[in-house]
């Protein structure tokens, strides 16, 4: 799944809502920590280190 | 006040003030789009109603302006669709801007072969005017009473007595059913002390209608333009729509703590509009400030009092789900109430209105709450995610799909609910239009239970209206699949039992078994639920 594909299909809004709900009530520092844990969990789930490196480049290049 | 020319409706002295009685079984409180649609729908089925409104003019201000395809198809059944379409501004493309850059566009109806477009924009005052004109075509069935304020009601097991105040005195009106179509601030609901619960948002939005001869859209083609963080309104959202008579609707997000009265003044508004439309000359037509709410009644049916439209549920406006949801309520209730008034069905059919439209309201609230949350981030981390979503969207299509500037009203599916017989295909969904014979498919199916067959399938005679599409001559009317859209959309060898509101209640493949059809019809009339209740 590259950054060009529609991996979330028709359920993007549902995911976004769940993501915001996961942050609900947290301080900024706690949200930052949650995001870090989430990145690590997602990386483990994706598993493909070359693909992950590509995504790191994409994410960094937008900055 | 808008440039629209308001035509005050007369007060007509009702028989009750002189000791008489109307005898209409249905009292409708509120002559807005929902109340008027209700009255027309009942009249088309021969059911009399009294419509009461404390005012005597149609909507002050354009208010609901986006009318979806499904609503236009309902208006078509009510006899006003073509007039709405002729006056309305047809559009189907939405564009989304982040700053000044377009990041995404969507086409809401990329295919042809439909009588009605994805959307028209038409001011609520025109919608009400056309519905009112239509209602007046039923003088024996619709008793329109303006300047008639309902100040109280007393519900019994078998009916309701309303207290009505008029310029010539007060009277009591008896009816078997009271339909509360009295809007978001429903006095009926308040009198009953019913909880109206949900989410209220802090942010306020300013609506400005301006009259402007020169179109801001490319090639003058009307579209829906939405901005996140434009330079003319930094850090906030803005929306632009075109209405008939060269009127444009501009929505501007305000600060949470903004003073609504101070914002809705020409001194504050004109510079904001100038920033959007540049040097084009314009005239301010109407201003309003509103707050987002996503709230609803728990139950829409309260004995003999039934809540329809905004009185039952309120959503934030960016999905066009308020007005369209209300018309779908009326469409759902009309045939059911008519059947019950005529003694052809029992209370379970009315209960199914609560089940089905409660489901519709939940879907509308879910979608509009998500949109509103995206538009109004409440914490730094929400703002961060939204900002990065918008930034990714410039280059990454997946992120464009996450941007939520309103998910526009689509009809909900009633699959899995009590009246529908489980089956494949479109069961529960509203039937989709197609060009057939010399006209269109939907008018052949709407308004009465209908068995429609596509291609190679025979339709048995159970006394139901039957319609064949793409079939050889039969003992019932058949129509050509003129452009091939009908069989392409429905397949061949399939038959649907269609409810009067156009939703598919059951499907049959290959052959229609008369017993199965009879059972499906019985279920769609609420008789299975009736037996379960007994």
Description of the structure:
The complex is a heterodimer of chains A (63) and B (534). Chain A contains three helices and no strands. Chain A is an all-alpha fold. Chain A has a domain of 37 residues. The model of chain A has no long low-confidence stretch (mean pLDDT 92). Chain B is α/β, with parallel strands linked by helices and 534 residues long. Among the domains of chain B are: 203 residues, FAD/NAD(P)-binding domain (3-Layer(bba) Sandwich); 99 residues, Glutaredoxin, CATH 3.40.30. Helices cover 30% and strands 27% of the residues of chain B. Chain B has 15 helices and 27 strands. In chain B, the strands form six sheets. Chain B has an eight-stranded mixed beta sheet. Chain B has a six-stranded mixed beta sheet with strand order 8-2-1-12-19-18. In chain B, strand 21 and strand 22 form a beta hairpin. In chain B, helix 1 packs parallel to helix 8, helix 2 packs across helix 3 and helix 8 packs antiparallel against helix 9. Chains A and B meet through helix 1 of A and helix 9 and helix 10 of B.
The average pLDDT score of chain A comes to 92
Q: What's the CATH first level of the domain at 15-87 and 121-194 and 300-355 in chain B?
A: Alpha Beta
Estimated helix fraction of chain A: 55-70%
Instruction: Give Rg of chain B in angstroms.
Output: 24 Å
Biggest protein-protein interface? Answer: A-B, 18 and 21 residues
Helix content of chain B: 25-40%
What structural class is derived from the secondary structure elements of chain A? mainly alpha
Which structural class do you get from the secondary structure elements of chain B? Answer: alpha/beta
The fraction of residues in strands of chain B falls at 25-35%
- What's the total count of β strands of chain A? 0
Total number of strands of chain B: 27
